[in-house]
Amino acid sequence: MNKSKLILAVVAASTLILSGCGGGGGSTAPAAPTTPPTSTATSTINSVVSTPSYPTASNQAVVYSMLNADRVSCGFGSVSQSTQLDQAALAHSRWMLLNNMTGHYESTTYPNGFTGVNPQDRGVAAGYVYSTNAGLESGEGQADVSGQVAYSPISMLTELLASPYHEVDLMRGWINIGIGYMDSNAAGTTATYGARTVMNVDEGVPSGATYQVPGPDDVLTYPCQGTTGTATELANQESPSPVPGRNFVTSPIGQPIVVELAFGNTLTLTSATMVDMANGSTVALLAPVDSANDPNPGYIESNEGYIMPNAPLAANTSYQVTLNGTNNGTAFSRTFSFTTGS
Predict the structure, then answer these.
(1) How much is the average pLDDT of 47-59?
(2) Which residue spans within 65-151 are E strands per DSSP?
(3) How far apart are the C-alpha atoms of 218 and 75, rounded to whole Å?
(4) Residue 179 dihedral angles phi and psi, to the nearest 5°
(5) Same domain, residue pair 29 and 110
(6) Mind listing the pLDDT tens digit for each residue in 247-260?
């Protein structure tokens, strides 16, 4: 049986503000977020997807294509390849495999493949120059599957997009990403430590650029109208847990819905409904979460929130979602539908 770990770190102005470890691992409590910039008056979203240099149909290429397709279709904007972040992400995947370690932090106690203590250190070592004035400057999402080599990168990304904190982060206003996919066969460690596949997705805002920001009145969601092929459930632990005390392995939740406003705005989610469009039945939801009631304060920004079905959704099924809330105190309501995958 494969064991999957989903791990996330986000850095604001070189200060760690988000670090979560799945699969029973430990986590580092976040520092208080830096004060985000005031929302801009107009959108800075870039919907043009640049052509990457990844080999066609490579693991990196399919992740890049899928993530950008989801981001652009839902209004979050595209992210472009950074070869420096590719290098940093791949180096960390290799270090994890060579040293049989997990998490975002490397140590010189394990020098084999060491390239930097934290994601930003490794990005700098690879030549990436981070912005210092964009709010959130860097992040790293990590999927770590034990018991199997050549694990599907699409499955890994789908799992990340079904985990509330990771899902929020992957839809943030990053400019660049780097993708580091490696398994234990490629690292030469299967015989020593067993079969394993690791994927790190490093995110950044480069020097001279600023965070992508939607318009001040925009309310973005993922999934959104027309999204297809989502997960049906989250059946891996995310730590810190979005539902403290709940074991997602034995009691999964359904595909979460994330909501994001312009960076610097304040989101309040007041209510939500979800309906199975095939039979009209109502899906039981947990209470909406925003920064005011996040069970792990500091893990989402004031402009972010999510809702969670209380049980797995059905496969290949369309659901209609209605969200109600306020954007900087102004009421909004959004209705859309999405379809799960198999």
Answers:
(1) 97
(2) 80-81, 136-146
(3) 9
(4) -120, 125
(5) yes
(6) 999 999 999 999 99
